[in-house]
Every structure is written in structure tokens, then in C-alpha cells.
């Protein structure tokens, strides 16, 4: 059975990548490519909508798709826990519709977040530095936010991290009590470093994205999961088997 897909945000870098993958993948048909000038009605007739828009637009895209019975794969940053919670509450009443939200399609990034989540239980000093190209409009990144949230859940019994002087703007934005610092630089694609400090040692968990090709495997896995999705699924770690049990990893 062929799954018909509409891509919203099709003219962006990620949109072009996803459209090309869908056109080549077995079992999928690209039936609509929407840009910022398109009417959302153009996605009607698809089975799955892929949202690759902007943080300020993403929710309206998802709401429209859900209202019309389409499953949605969200690759747009900016989905807070409150927004995800509201969406999950709504979908609980719509058993036939599912939304998959993936902050980062890179397998390496998902693994780095998993490793940081495991390590968070053993250190009280934790900070995150994420860096992206200058065209990325939101900060902190969705990956950094999810990393901080999962780390905070993993260490829930340990208490808040040691983060002195967070009243000073240079100390970053606190996400789940963890300082997050955002860089936007020419020449970069994406990088995240999680720094953990303890008595007499530091641990750094780094992931560096060198090419959008690193997203291909994750995109295809997420598309397959979206076809059969019900309710809300957050993170590629909920789709693939990492072989790890991560405290608080579920949405």
C-alpha cells in the first residue's frame, strides 16, 4: 500500500532533502509540496503531512492536519513540553490520528542525548552549548531543550543541578534548571556539547553534524513510524531501539 505524503516547508534545505527521499522510497508518493505562499488545503488528499516549517507556523500546520485526519511528522523546533502536552490531550480523543515530533533526525545526536541522560545522574554541574548556522531562527535548539529535559528527569531524585550566577545573562538560558548556551555562526551546520563536572574530573559529550546526509536514516525511520502512529511520540529515541533504558525518556 502506497502512503501519500505532503511536505510543508518543501523549499527549505530540509524540505528539499525530505522530498527527494520520498520520491525515491518504496511505498511512498509525494503528492504535495507546500511553501510559505501555499494554502494548507493543498495537503488534503495526503495520508501523512511532514511539517518542516518555522516555530511560529508549525502548530497551525499540525492543527490543520490533525483536524483533517492526517498523521503528522514534525521536524520543526520549538515544541515545548506544554505544547506537546496539550497536543497529547487532544489526540487522546482522536484514536485514529498520530503525531511524531523529532527534534533531530541524526542517529548520532540521539545517541549523544542518550549518553548525556545516563551521565546526568552522576554529576551535579551540567551545562549545554549548542551551535548552528546563522539561518536557524530559534534558540535554544529543540535538541538542546530535549537533552536538558531528559537529563533533568533522569536526575529527578538527585535535585537541581549546580548552576551558580544564572541571574547573569551571560550564563545562558535555563532549561529544566540546566544552563543552555546558543551559538549562531557562519560555517557551521550543527553541533552540541554537554559538559558535566564532578570532583576532580569533567566529562564532555559532543556531537557534530557535518552534512544533512546524517539525517537520511532517521527521516526514513520516522516516516515509517508516522504511518502507523497513534497519539504523540516525541524523539527518534522512541522509534529506534537504543538498547538503553533512559529514565523519563517517554513524552
What structural class should be given to the helix and strand makeup? alpha/beta
- Widest sheet: strand ordering: 2-1-3-4-5-11
* Low-confidence runs: none
**What count of structural domains?**
2
CATH class of the largest domain: Alpha Beta
Total number of beta strands: 11
Q: How is the main sheet built?
A: 6 strands, parallel
CATH architecture of the largest domain: 3-Layer(aba) Sandwich
Shape: globular
Strand content: 25-35%
Number of DSSP helical runs: 6
**CATH superfamily placement of the largest domain:** NAD(P)-binding Rossmann-like Domain
**Percentage of residues assigned to helices:** 25-40%
Q: List the secondary-structure elements in sequence, H or E.
A: EHEEHEHEHEHEEEEHE
Query: Mean pLDDT, rounded to whole units?
Result: 93
Enter the CATH topology name of the largest domain.
Rossmann fold
Rg, rounded, reads: 18 Å
The N- to C-terminal Cα distance equals 30 Å
Describe the structure.
This protein folds into 2 domains: 3-105 and 213-238, NAD(P)-binding Rossmann-like Domain (Rossmann fold); 107-211, Dihydrodipicolinate Reductase, domain 2. Helix 3 (81-91) links the parallel strand 4 and strand 5. It has helices at 13-24, 55-67, 81-91, 107-119, 142-154, 216-227, and strands spanning 3-8, 28-34, 48-51, 71-74, 98-101, 125-132, 173-175, 178-184, 190-198, 201-209, 231-234. The longest helix is centred in the first third of the chain and has 13 residues, at 55-67. Helix 4 (107-119) packs parallel to helix 5. The chain is 29% helix and 26% strand. It is α/β, with parallel strands linked by helices and 251 residues long. The strands form 2 sheets. Strands 2-1-3-4-5-11 form a 6-stranded parallel beta sheet, with helices on both faces.
Amino acid at each position: 500500500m502506497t502512503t501519500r505524503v505532503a511536505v510543508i516547508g518543501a523549499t527549505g534545505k530540509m524540505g528539499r532533502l525530505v522530498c527527494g527521499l520520498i520520491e525515491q522510497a518504496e511505498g511512498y508518493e509525494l503528492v504535495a509540496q507546500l511553501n510559505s505562499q501555499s494554502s494548507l488545503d493543498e495537503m488534503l488528499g495526503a495520508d501523512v503531512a511532514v511539517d518542516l516549517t518555522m516555530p511560529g507556523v508549525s502548530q497551525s500546520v499540525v492543527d490543520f492536519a490533525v483536524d483533517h485526519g492526517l498523521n503528522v511528522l514534525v521536524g520543526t523546533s520549538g515544541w515545548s513540553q506544554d505544547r506537546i502536552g496539550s497536543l497529547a490531550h487532544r489526540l487522546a480523543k482522536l484514536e485514529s490520528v498520530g503525531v511524531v515530533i523529532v527534534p533531530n533526525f541524526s542517529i548520532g545526536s540521539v545517541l549523544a542525548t542518550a549518553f548525556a541522560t545516563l551521565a546526568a545522574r552522576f554529576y551535579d554541574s551540567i551545562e549545554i552549548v549548542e551551535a548552528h548556522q546563522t539561518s536557524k531562527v530559534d534558540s535554544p535548539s529543540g535538541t538542546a531543550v530535549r537533552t536538558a529535559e531528559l537529563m533533568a528527569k533522569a536526575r529527578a531524585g538527585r535535585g537541581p543541578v549546580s548552576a551558580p550566577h544564572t541571574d547573569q545573562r551571560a550564563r545562558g538560558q535555563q532549561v529544566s534548571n540546566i544552563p543552555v548556551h546558543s551559538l549562531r555562526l557562519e560555517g557551521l551546520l550543527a553541533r552540541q556539547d554537554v559538559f558535566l563536572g564532578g570532583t576532580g574530573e569533567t566529562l564532555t559529550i559532543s556531537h557534530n553534524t557535518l552534512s544533512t546526509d546524517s539525517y537520511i536514516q532517521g527521516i526514513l525511520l520516522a516516516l515509517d513510524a508516522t504511518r502507523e502512529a497513534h497519539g504523540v511520540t516525541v524523539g527518534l529515541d522512541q522509534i529506534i531501539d537504543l538498547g538503553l533504558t533512559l529514565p523519563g525518556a517517554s513524552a
